[in-house]
Amino acid sequence: MTGCCLEKLLKSIGIFLSAVSSNRYLREFLEVGGVLTLLEILGLEKITEEAKKESVKLLQVIANSGRKYKELICESYGGYRV
C-alpha cells in the first residue's frame, strides 16, 4: 500500500492514538505489531516522505505515552532505524 491511501490510514490511526481515552487503542495497536509496522514503513524506499512523516508522528505519540512504550520502540530496534 503506497501513496495517499497509506498517509490517510496513518492519519486515521493517529486520531485514535491521540484521543483522550486512547489507552485501549494504543494497547491493541501495539499487540498487532504497530511499532514494527511503523518502523518498517520508515525503511521502505517506495513510500512517500509524507507517509514516513506520519509514521514518525505516530512513534512520537506512542513514545509520549510513557517509559514502557519508549522501551518497546527501542527493543524493536527503533533507536537504530530512526
UniProtKB/TrEMBL annotation:
<dbReference type="InterPro" id="IPR041090">
    <property type="entry name" value="DUF5578"/>
</dbReference>
<dbReference type="Pfam" id="PF17741">
    <property type="entry name" value="DUF5578"/>
</dbReference>
<protein>
    <submittedName>
        <fullName>Armadillo-like helical domain containing protein 1</fullName>
    </submittedName>
</protein>
